[in-house]
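Progress against Task 2.4 (sequence-to-structure conversion) is shown through the following example record, which the project officer requested during the mid-term review.
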Amino acid sequence: MLFAASMALLAVVSAVGLVVDDRVLVGSPIWAKPFKFSVSLIAYGLSLAWMLSLLDRGRRAGWWAGTVVALTLLVEMVIITGQVVRGKRSHFNHQTPLDDALFDTMAVTIVIMWLATLVIAVLLLRARIADRASAWAMRCGITLALAGAAIGFRMSRPAPGQVQGSSSIVGAHSVGVPDGGPSMPLTGWSTTGGDLRIPHFFGMHALQLLPLLLMGLVALAPRFTRLADDRVRLRLVLVAAGAYAAVFALVTWQALRGQPLIHPDGATLTAAGLILAASAAGAYGALRPTTAPKDTAVDDPNDMNDAKELVS
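Structure tokens generated for the chain above:
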């Protein structure tokens, strides 16, 4: 919670920087990165805090894992903001010994953060949470968040023309085009090539979106009787998680092929159509009425005799 509060403060500072600082770095306003990261990490921190509060066992391990996540992300954001002040790239930058050391530090902290989040995911899988829909919304959300975070490891690999140990920039967000080219407003995602930030963003925010879906279902339950059934809500959460995982795989595949998000080819559109059809069918099946099985037991004569004695 303290980390989320610090990110809220940084978001305000970064927003001011966007207004008063006209510097541009790699095709984007220089304060855009800390602003986007801080807003994203507010949601990430609040989500993890809520999930950790629901642990019924392993709470001490969860506290330590959550603390490690907060501290490593804090180090990451201090470096990103410090590089902005210096007017330097934070990611993939090996131009000077200082830049190299800072990026290596970021790489180490992100690996530690990922492992600490994995510990939290294991604790949530073992937790006994009464509402099954809530339990699986959190479990699926944090698993997809881990997959999304792991995309960051792929970005640090040398892009074509880069050589580890000799190039000043090693790694890239974009696939098939250089970083800093034409991009979408606000997000900065490439419009001419693939962009690994798309699956990275989409996967990590499953941590918020799946629990938010469940909250929406619970809020609608008084108006729609079928949603009041916890079995229906559980099935809908599982269908949504499956659909989310499929879309995550699709945008990852699209990015790795060097294809912009807004210019899908026939293969991407076909896969998207299949995901949509399967999701619609799954949702329809999940909403089917759940009826209790009929009582087919044969009356026991002894039970009848006991009843007669009770009446007499």
